[in-house]
Specification:
It is a single chain. The chain has 2 domains: about 10-65, Arc Repressor Mutant, subunit A; about 80-195, Tetracycline Repressor, domain 2 (Orthogonal Bundle), CATH 1.10.357.10. The chain is an all-alpha fold. It has helices spanning about 15, 20-40, 50-55, 60-65, 70-90, 95-115, 115-125, 130-135, 135-150, 160-175, 180-190, and strands at about 5, 125. The two termini are about 35 Å apart.
Amino acid sequence: MTSAPRPLIPVDPGCAARPLRADARRNRERILKAARIVFGEQGIDAQIDDVAKRAKVGVGTVYRHFPTKEALLDALVREHFSEIAQFAKEALRHEDAWEGFCELIWRAAERNAADRAFCDAVAFTDCTEIVRASGLAHMTEDLMRRAQGQGTMRLDAAQTDIPIMMSAAASVMRNHPSEAWRRYLAIMLDGLRAS
């Protein structure tokens, strides 16, 4: 029996408003860059010590920027969803909405497959607020409505189906490090296509 997804720790809006000194900004970027690699390889069980070592900063420096491991993961997940939101903006430019939708899903899945921690985060946490804040939910819904209007997507498909589909793909990515997720994602996409 699995527990209900837990929301990621919300970011303190006051932290984002305060400008950082140049050296602090550089350290923060080094920490995020190192964390992307360490968490991407090791998943959410990665240790802050490993991030600090890779970033070539002290553990205290990491904690000054990110008071908990969850806060660091939250920053990485937000960054990841912002990147996928950019994919959605590009997908919206397609005249054929189904083609744009499929391109978005495949690009997002490719990006997810390269990041073990993100797969863990999507499987075990509620990312709804982050997806909304990034604009991804709204853009995906627009794309789906267009595809339904063009007769290429099932009329009963809903934007809420997408997080479930992507969580399922992430689960396959986590449990079967091969390329098996591609087959299951293709099957799920076929399930959304209008017959």
